[in-house]
Amino acid sequence: MLISAENISKNYGMKQLLDSVSLYLNEGDRIGIIGINGTGKSTLLKILAGVTHPDSGNISSKPDLQISYLPQDPVMNEEYTVLEQVLSDMPSEYREVSEYEAKSMLGKLGINDYSAKVGTLSGGQRKRAALASALIHPADVLILDEPTNHLDSEMVTWLENRLNKFTGGIVMITHDRYFLERVVTKITELSRGKLYTYEANFSRYLELKAQREEMAEASERKRQSVLRREYQWIMRAARARGTKSKDRIERYYDLKSRSAPEYDDTVKISALSSRLGKKTIDLKNISKSYSGKKVVDGFSYIILRNDRIGIIGHNGAGKSTLLNMIAGRLQPDSGEVETGETVSIGYFTQTSAELDENQKVFDFIHDISDSVKTSEGTFSASQMLERFLFYPDLQQSLIGRLSGGEKRRLYLLSILMEAPNILLLDEPTNDLDIETLRILEDYIDEFPGAVVSVSHDRYYLDKIARSIFEVGDDGKITCYTGNYSDYYEKVKDRKKEEKSVVKTAAFESVEPAKRTHALKFSFKEQREYETIDSDIEKLENMIAECESEIASQTSDYVKLQELMDKKSQLSEELDQKTERWIYLNDLADRIEAEKNR
């Protein structure tokens, strides 16, 4: 066992976050922690990482255990370069040998300027640099708080593959449901201070949770039925004094004292929207450049009243820039954005910059509106806060005392309180818990106006999008009909076609003089064709052995670097062999076809 946490309790002010909970992490376990924002998930991770201590309970771990921890809000040295920050936890004598891997990892995470000062990075870049720092550190246990935030789809796929190969233990908080589906082996739900662990990925967890709740509800129905019957008996035989009667009365009161099943409260969002006229937002050939680089190039589109658009692309490609131009917060260099008179935009930004950390929760919402009309009636600011799980005691708290997820939930409420008829959502899934995301998705489904979302969350885009806009690195925007999965299949098919066209063109470009003779293998090619399958298999086995050795050498930095260099060399050889395999098999097919003519 790597880590054992037994009977852990933790209070935060008057709130009981953890109530005598236990969690055990074994080698190979990949545990996903989920639950409503503000319930104590990040606190639990801090306790497991040794950053904070429980009020009571015991934490024990394997001797000499190496833990690498990614916090929700990483603390960094503003004066360090990115590379210095990533390697800052490494012993100085091993930093040089790890520099190559650090640069490679940063490149995978979209950071190519290793000499940039940390103080100049955006919030997303800082989180990705912190993720690289956590992953490069040799460790037996990875403790990761929201590792998928600020990663685009390619980066998330890369991280999935890396974590699936990790042989130690992993505990992480993430609200990316496809990530939970593909990476974790256990789901641990934190609810009302208690932990419920399921040996399952996300979809299986949903099934098991539903079964548990059905059983609890069935038990409660039976308890209530017995209580009604026993109560009637007591009322009829209240003066009975026999021993059996006394035992029966005691059983009744014991049954009555048991509590009913408790469930987490959920956010309640009612339709909040103002009237939207015929004219919405018309984008006319808009372009925008930064430092000579086009991030949006000649894009035109009329947003329809019922549009559900998902915007995707690499980090830095121009997605937020496009959203800012739609919102009127940024003017295009050329082209025009025309907005209808009745348009009321609700813009949920990535940064939640409108939140004043020193303002009270209630005052922030009350300043927007003291009441709001919904499809269910009129609600005061305080009642709307309660529907978003901000109860009276929390309404008087300063915003700065809220968790990251609670701040995002409060910010979402502030946007909806303005009753917009067009919603612009920039990374809405960052820091929102799964239950709130599910309710937001349902709200979007019923929302009478247009919704435009920038998101890397594939599950969310599958749920809400009816069209996908892909922002290319050259600023060109390509529109696809359907959700994310539809887009992914279309792109995959397109790449296959492009590859086929390239291969055909390469074949047809061979000089006629060279094609007058019958196609055949050279002696060397024939020998290579006969052995290439076994050669590839050997390389794959060597890489697997190398990965196994890497996993077992987490504390020997010199040996670790040697193994990583060896793996890199083997991977390069495998790529070259694979390219030769494609060429030789294609040639064999063409030789066979020519023989059969």
Structural account:
This protein is an alpha/beta fold and 597 residues long. The chain has 18 helices and 20 strands. The strands form five sheets. The protein has a six-stranded mixed beta sheet, with helices on both faces. A six-stranded mixed beta sheet has the order 14-17-18-12-19-20, sandwiched between helices. A hairpin with a 5-residue loop joins strand 19 and strand 20. Helix 3 crosses helix 4 (123-136), helix 3 packs parallel to helix 18 (557-595) and helix 17 runs antiparallel to helix 18 (557-595). The longest helix has 39 residues, at 557-595. It is globular and about 105 Å long. Mean pLDDT is 85; it is low at 510-516.
What structural class results from the helix and strand content?
alpha/beta
* H/I helix tally: 18
Helical residue percent? 40-55%
Low-confidence stretches: 510-516
What is the tally of beta strands?
A: 20
Strands side by side in the biggest sheet: 5-6-7-3-8-9
Give the N-terminus to C-terminus distance in angstroms.
Answer: 66 Å
3D shape: globular
Biggest sheet: strands, sense, closure? 6 strands, mixed
Strand content: 15-25%
- Give the averaged pLDDT, no decimals: 85
Rounded radius of gyration (Å):
29 Å
Keyword list:
597 residues, alpha/beta
Summed up:
With 597 residues, this protein is α/β, with parallel strands linked by helices. The chain is built from 18 helices and 20 strands.
Write the layout of secondary structure elements.
Blueprint: E1 3-12, E2 15-25, E3 30-34, H1 41-49, E4 56-61, E5 67-70, H2 82-86, H3 92-108, H4 123-136, E6 141-145, H5 153-165, E7 169-173, H6 177-183, E8 186-191, E9 194-198, H7 202-236, H8 243-257, E10 281-290, E11 293-303, E12 308-312, H9 319-327, E13 334-339, E14 345-348, H10 361-368, E15 371-374, E16 377-380, H11 381-387, H12 392-395, H13 404-416, E17 422-426, H14 434-446, E18 450-454, H15 458-464, E19 467-471, E20 477-481, H16 484-508, H17 523-552, H18 557-595
Parallel strand pairs: 3-7, 3-8, 5-6, 6-7, 12-18, 12-19, 14-17, 17-18
Antiparallel strand pairs: 1-2, 1-4, 8-9, 10-11, 10-13, 15-16, 19-20
Helix pairs in contact: 3-4, 3-18, 7-8, 17-18
